[in-house]
TrEMBL record:
Residues 436-554 form the Response regulatory domain. Its EC number is 2.7.13.3. The modification 4-aspartylphosphate is found at D486. It catalyses: ATP + protein L-histidine = ADP + protein N-phospho-L-histidine. It comes from the Bacteria. InterPro entries: CheY-like_superfamily (IPR011006), HATPase_C_sf (IPR036890), HATPase_dom (IPR003594), His_kinase_dom (IPR005467), HisK_dim/P_sf (IPR036097), Sig_transdc_His_kin-like_C (IPR004358), Sig_transdc_resp-reg_receiver (IPR001789). Residues 131-179 form a coiled coil. It holds the Pfam family Response_reg. This is histidine kinase. Keywords: Coiled coil, Phosphoprotein. Residues 188-411 form the Histidine kinase domain. It is an enzyme of class 2 (transferase).
């Protein structure tokens, strides 16, 4: 914009020869419109702005986007600042990106300045493109983030659904496994119990048919007793398997125990099997039920003998002390503490992976029918875990088998009991003092047999079918010296009956008979023992044994 003379045409001609297209604007409005349409730079003369209102142009400059800094080239007379003063310089600053060229100037300077301004404007357009691309990318990222959250939420829901489905499938699998084990357990128990019942029922019926043949009655009665004891053995193994059997723990010297087992098993296992013991005399004692521990070790030795047979081989008992440190998980899941590691190893053919995986299943056995119950290893594991330890089997074909038991060491402060508790003292038969015993059991046959055994000692036995009947006899004023009751009965159980009876007769001596005692009744047993003379007898119990316990308790009372 150069409104005076031929300046505009001359400048356009110079720029045209330099290859720069241009447009001549007649006034400021025309110039502002051309800039708005997309001009790359503006060339204007000082006199074109004189007496002109530049406010619209300054407003446009101020309203530029962040990427834009439009270039202006102002052709001014010499000493522009001196002629216009501070007001003129402020006006020039209002244009922003403005370059002042004093006239006269050559064509080369003019075209060079215009090209520089256009290049600067081109870079601004590149910045605009990059900024737009950045904004598009940012928008895409925001959209992706939004959709990502949606996808994550959807996938999380899918995973939760899959987890629920997996848990349901696992629960169904566990239930199926439980039913399979329960079926094996029920089948094995039914088999062993039916054998016991066969011998008991058959022997009892033969006794009924031969009352006049004392020799036959004695022989058959012995057979019935043996069968019943075998049934009691099955019950004990099942309780050990379920970890519900009652343990009488005491410090046990493994060195002396192994020495005794070696002497016994040397004859029991046969001449083809050699028994070795690797246990030092300085081993710490182990805290366990001696009888059950010896039973477990004998069963393991017999299993080893059966695996070796008919070949010759060796069974080795070993024992070493072992410390399980905290923070170091034990492969058998042992808690931190001091243990004695007992092992029974054989050099037999070993087990394949499938047999090893099922070795501790109840009633699983590889022995011929009738040669094994399949409870030995499961009972050993139950005994070890109930004792506060663990069991592990290591076996492979052609490598033999090692069964390892970890049992807790006995502390130095633990001493073997010097005498049994008063309730366990066994008195000799043949009492002369007549006493009254209240016997409560809901099974008529059991109650009749036990009552007969107690009555043989000269005592008066009052029988009751349940707790209500027993309390009625006490309320009637019966002079009872001892209450004997079964634990599991319809209505009130035996412990509830003992508490109710002692509200009528404080400190009444009581003897509880039970098949097993679980954790739920241990606290109640402690309370029963603290409220008066109290004893506990586990089924099956022989009539003479119950009578001995009854005599001992009444004598102590």
């Amino acid at each position: 914009m150069a409104p005076h003379g031929r300046d505009a045409a001359l400048a356009a001609d110079i720029l045209g020869k330099a290859g720069v297209p241009s447009r001549i604007c007649a006034n400021l409005d025309d110039l502002t419109g051309a800039i708005t349409e997309g001009a790359g730079a503006a060339l204007l003369t000082e006199e074109g702005l004189a007496r002109r209102d530049v406010l619209p142009l300054q407003r446009w400059v101020a309203a530029q986007p962040s990427w834009s800094d439009f270039p202006f080239i102002l052709l001014a007379a010499p000493r522009f600042g001196a002629s216009r003063g501070a007001q003129g310089l402020a006006w020039l600053d209002g244009l922003g990106n403005a370059v002042l060229l004093e006239r006269p100037l050559g064509a080369a300077v003019l075209s060079s300045a215009v090209r520089a301004a256009l290049r600067a404007r081109g870079r601004q357009y590149q910045a605009r493109t990059l900024l737009a691309e950045y904004e598009r990318t940012a928008a895409q990222i925001a959209a992706l983030n939004a959709s990502l959250e949606e996808r994550v939420a959807a996938r999380t829901a899918e995973l939760r659904a899959e987890a629920r489905e997996r848990e349901r499938a696992e629960a169904m699998l566990i239930q199926a496994q439980k039913m399979e084990v329960l079926g094996q357990l029920a089948g094995g128990v039914a088999h062993d119990v039916n054998n016991v019942l066969q011998a008991v029922l058959g022997g009892a019926r033969m006794i009924v048919r031969r009352p006049d043949d004392p020799a036959a009655v004695t022989r058959l009665a012995g057979m019935v007793v043996d069968a019943a004891l075998r049934g009691a053995g099955v019950a004990r193994r099942l309780l050990a398997l379920a970890r519900r059997g009652k343990l009488q723990v005491e410090p046990v010297d493994a060195h002396h125990m192994f020495a005794g087992l070696q002497e016994v098993l040397a004859h029991t296992l046969g001449g083809a099997v050699t028994v070795h013991v690797e246990a030092g005399s300085d081993l710490p004692p182990v805290l366990a039920d001696r009888g059950q521990l010896e039973t477990v070790l004998v069963n393991l030795a017999v299993n080893a003998r059966d695996a070796i047979a008919p070949q010759a081989g060796a069974v080795t008992f070993s024992a070493v002390a072992e410390e399980v440190a905290s923070g170091e998980p034990h492969p058998s899941g042992l808690a931190p503490g001091s243990y004695l590691r007992l092992a029974v190893a054989d050099d037999g053919p070993g087990m394949d992976a499938g047999t090893l995986a099922r070795a501790t299943e109840p009633f699983f056995t590889t022995k011929p029918r009738g040669k094994g119950t399949g409870l030995g290893l499961s009972m050993a594991r139950g005994f070890a875990e109930q004792s506060g330890g663990a069991m592990h089997i290591d076996s492979a074909l052609e490598r033999g088998t090692i069964v390892t038991l970890w049992l807790p060491q006995a502390g130095k402060a633990v001493e073997p009991p010097t005498a049994p508790p008063a309730a366990s003292v066994v008195a000799a038969p043949g009492r002369t003092q007549r006493r009254c015993v209240l016997l409560v059991d809901d099974e008529p046959q059991v109650r009749t047999v036990l009552a007969a055994g107690i009555a043989e000692r000269g005592h008066v036995v009052i029988q009751a079918v349940d707790a209500a009947a027993a309390l009625a006899r006490l309320d009637a004023g019966e002079p009872v010296d001892l209450l004997i009751t079964d634990l599991a009965m319809p209505g009130q159980d035996g412990l509830t009956l003992i508490r109710a009876a002692r509200t009528r007769h404080p400190g009444l001596a009581a003897l509880l008979i039970t098949g097993h005692v679980g954790d739920a009744t241990s606290m109640l047993l402690d309370q029963a023992a603290s409220d008066g003379p109290f004893g506990l007898v586990h089924k099956p119990v022989m009539p003479d044994e119950l009578a001995d316990r009854a005599d001992a308790m009444m004598s102590a009372a």
